[in-house]
Design a protein that fits this description.
Helix content: over 70%
Number of helices: 4
Oligomer: single chain
Length: about 100
């Protein structure tokens, strides 16, 4: 029969692994904040507004354009973004260490 104490000790993560997981969560949150910021900036720039004239997408385009703008903002962020996520990451990491 296996020693349950040994199994339990192996199941707990070492502190270094838990810190890395927390850093990953902070970095993900920073990227999401940058993507939200970029989404609003792209909307303000007119991206996602319906096109006039022939071939316009109609109601469907209007309803789903916000999803497209958000996806584009997330891709910009994943490609390096504008540096906002990195600044946010460092600020959140510093405040979590206090």
């Amino acid at each position: 029969m296996p020693n349950l104490t040994t199994v339990h000790q192996a199941a707990t993560a070492p502190p270094k692994l838990q810190a890395a997981t927390q850093d990953d969560a902070i970095r993900d949150a920073a990227k999401q904040l940058e993507a939200s910021f970029l989404t609003e900036m792209l909307k303000s720039a007119g991206l996602g507004k319906s096109r006039e004239g022939l071939g316009g997408g109609g109601e469907g385009e209007d309803q789903f354009s916000s999803f497209l703008v958000r996806a584009q903002a997330e891709q910009i962020t994943e490609a390096g973004g504008i540096g906002l996520a990195e600044s946010l990451y460092h600020a959140m990491k510093d405040s979590s260490n206090d």
